[in-house]
Design brief:
The complex is a heterodimer of chains A (about 120) and B (about 110). Chain A has strands at about 5, 10-15, 20, 25, 35-40, 45-50, 60, 65-70, 75-80, 90-95, 105, 110-115. In chain A, strand 8 and strand 9 (about 75-80) form a beta hairpin. In chain A, strands 2, 5, 6, 10, 11 and 12 form a 6-stranded mixed β-sheet that branches. Chain A is mostly beta strands and about 120 residues long. Chain B is mainly β. Helix content of chain B is about 0%, strand content about 55%. In chain B, the strands form 2 sheets. In chain B, strands 2, 4, 5, 6, 9, 10 and 11 form a 7-stranded mixed β-sheet that branches. In chain B, strands 1-3-8-7 form a 4-stranded antiparallel β-sheet, with no helix packed on it. In chain B, a hairpin with a 2-residue loop joins strand 7 and strand 8 (about 75-80). Chain B is globular, with a radius of gyration of 13 Å. Chain B starts with a strand and ends with a strand. In chain B, about 35% of the residues are buried. Classes of the chains: A mainly beta (about 120), B mainly beta (about 110). At the A-B interface, strand 5, strand 6 and strand 10 of A face strand 4, strand 5, strand 9 and strand 10 of B.
Chain lengths: ~120, ~110
């Protein structure tokens, strides 16, 4: 069974600085997707960034980028130039469509607070 | 992206009653999912709903308690039956766009059972 681990329950960062959220996962699959979702207090789950395992290049979306280390099964999220609106719960998630299970497996989340 | 709406956005229900949550997507999707998020927790998959077939339930969730309908490719309902306070959670609908490898979530339904 696939598992996703987020080892940082809470983190804080000063506005305009950079923060990295950690995520590790465990799987025997070779082809899969990894995601970071943001959930503000309004509770809407927002897809921040995704990475396909077969792609060696790290995904980037504006201020958000990932460090994908397939061999180490690590998928960290870097937020540059942090903004107050980045304050939210961040969930790392894994999906292996070819594994027979279509479900998205989530980590427990990291609560990020951006301080002014 | 996908535009997903859920009704109701929140409700307060009495113990022993049932609530049906609706999920509407702006375009056809093959796979729809229902998740539960208990207070302060991560998301747990309840079931996968494919059009034209019975929903597939995860361990710990049963059809009698969480019946699901999927009448077409843009709509699904989840019913929470015979509710107890332990059912107080946020229930989220989600869709998978296999072609783009992206999964999106609705705004959620906040259920409180008294």
């Amino acid at each position: 069974a696939q598992t996703v681990t987020q080892s940082q329950p809470e983190m804080s960062v000063q506005e305009a600085e950079t923060v990295t959220l950690s995520c590790t996962y465990d799987t025997s699959e070779n082809n899969y997707y990894l995601f970071w979702y943001k959930q503000p207090p309004s509770r809407q789950m927002i897809l921040v960034i995704r990475q396909e395992a077969y792609k060696q290049q790290n995904a980037t979306e504006n201020r958000f980028s990932v460090n994908f280390q397939k061999a180490a099964k690590s998928f960290s999220l870097k937020i540059s130039d942090s903004q107050l609106g980045d304050t939210a719960m961040y969930f790392c998630a894994f999906k292996a469509p070819q594994g027979g299970s279509e479900k998205l497996v989530f980590g427990k989340g990291t609560k990020l607070t951006v301080n002014p | 992206s996908a535009v997903i709406s859920q009704k109701p956005s929140r409700d307060i229900c009495q113990r022993g009653t049932s609530l049906t949550i609706q999920c509407q997507v702006d375009s056809q999707v093959t796979m729809m999912f229902w998740y539960r998020q208990q207070p302060g927790q991560s998301l747990t998959l309840i079931a996968t709903a494919n059009q034209g077939s019975e929903a597939t339930y995860e361990s710990g969730f049963v059809i009698d308690k969480f019946p699901i309908s999927r009448p077409n490719l843009t709509f699904s309902t989840l019913t929470v039956s015979n509710m107890s306070p332990e059912d107080s959670s946020i229930y989220l609908c989600s869709v998978w766009r296999g072609r783009t490898g992206e999964q999106y979530f609705g705004p959620g339904t906040r259920l409180t059972v008294t």
